[in-house]
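In the current project phase, the collection of sequences with tokenised folds has grown. A sample record is quoted in full directly below:
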Amino acid sequence: MLEPGETIPDALQREVLEETGIKIALPATLTGVYKNMTRLIIAMVFRCEAIDGDLTTGDETRALRWATRDEVTDLVDEAYAIRVLDALDAASPPAVRAHDGVKLI
């Protein structure tokens, strides 16, 4: 979430660092906008380059790992796997999708 007065790029760098321990380079590329229809939450997903740090869990992250494209759909629900796949595919314009928290709708 954006902090008051924070820019989207600043929030992206802060959130990735807080949740993963990884520092990212800017600019980042917007690859999709996803609406959880059940919880009424909109998430913007960006593809970015890791430049420093080590994977670290925290209050908002239980586990982290690097995964191949083929492993993504086995690791998480469809609603979240599609975000990674859209980012890897780098479709232009960015994807706009809705889901129920598990499945795309």
